[in-house]
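Is this the right way to post structure tokens for a design question? Let me know if I should format differently. Anyway, here goes:
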């Protein structure tokens, strides 16, 4: 059998496997649609806690948690990893319930809805500011709700995201995100130009900054070396953008808190230009602060420290 034929066979087998995995996921989400949001999300949480530890990714999560928290016992590490799988189950299920989940109403009594927002006055000030803005966040909590929240305050943004490797799932995810999340730019060749075009036109951009980036700036995360995508500080330097950290964490009782933080003052060199390497470290420091506050809500099963 020729090499080209082997390649075609392998590709078809992979496509078939991806299709089967996607259909299984879609079937599970269809079942979840029959439940009220809180019950459906709780079921997805329990299911993921059962399935996740049986996968190879669980070992990666344990390794990463051990590197980040050398002072914690094996039992504590295992507990965080299992709770983290529950969070991952909720993320998958939240695509089904996005419209039900985001019930924020500024007139409602605090603590009575599923979503509360910190930084409302800041959202309103940014809405009325013609200057382009870059919002950054991490794979923490229900990060998918952040573009919806921004749109609620009239801050539509173009968000850079990494597509799932499974193209069938990626297509479905993209469709779900387009419902209320604004414009989307897949993280691939040409993405930086698309974001630059948005900022040049006075638009707003949202980015996840906690992913491995082989050609990134040398930085540290939890005291260990890693590389960080320099796109945020490079865009800020070119377009004179304000940079705002934003996150969404899960609260007890199936509730959510979305927080918009004040402008991050990026480090500058002696000539006043934004220091890209130093700014990348600032982004990592913000994300690390968030993760330390809610360690079970960050995605521990990707290899952030590979350099």
């Amino acid at each position: 059998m020729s090499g080209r034929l082997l390649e075609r066979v392998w590709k078809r087998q992979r496509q078939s496997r991806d299709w089967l995995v996607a259909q299984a996921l879609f079937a599970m989400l269809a079942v979840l649609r029959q439940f009220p949001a809180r019950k459906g999300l709780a079921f997805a949480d329990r299911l993921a806690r059962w399935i996740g530890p049986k996968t190879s990714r669980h070992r990666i999560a344990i390794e990463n948690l051990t590197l980040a928290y050398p002072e914690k016992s094996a039992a504590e590490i295992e507990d965080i990893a299992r709770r983290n799988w529950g969070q991952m189950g909720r993320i998958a299920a939240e695509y089904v319930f996005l419209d039900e989940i985001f019930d924020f109403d500024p007139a409602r009594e605090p603590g009575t809805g599923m979503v509360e927002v910190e930084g409302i006055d800041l959202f309103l000030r940014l809405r009325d500011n013609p200057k382009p803005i870059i919002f950054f966040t991490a794979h923490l909590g229900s990060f998918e709700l952040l573009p919806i929240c921004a749109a609620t305050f009239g801050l539509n943004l173009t968000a850079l995201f990494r597509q799932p490797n499974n193209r069938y799932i990626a297509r479905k995810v993209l469709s779900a995100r387009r419902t209320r999340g604004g414009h989307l730019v897949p993280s691939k060749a040409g993405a930086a130009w698309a974001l630059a075009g948005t900022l040049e036109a006075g638009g707003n951009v949202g980015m996840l900054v906690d992913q491995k980036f082989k050609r990134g700036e040398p930085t540290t995360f939890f005291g260990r070396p890693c590389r960080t995508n320099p796109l945020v500080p490079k865009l800020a330097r070119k377009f004179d953008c304000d940079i705002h950290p934003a996150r969404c964490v899960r609260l007890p009782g199936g509730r959510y808190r979305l927080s918009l933080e004040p402008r991050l003052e990026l480090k500058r060199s002696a000539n006043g230009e934004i220091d890209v390497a130093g700014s990348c470290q600032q982004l990592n420091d913000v994300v690390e602060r968030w993760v330390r506050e809610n360690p079970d809500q960050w995605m521990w099963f990707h290899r952030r420290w590979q350099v």
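Format looks fine. Someone answered above. Worth noting: The beta strands are 115-118, 133-137, 157-161, 183-186, 204-208, 217-221, 224-228, 242-251, 255-260. The longest helix spans residues 3-32.
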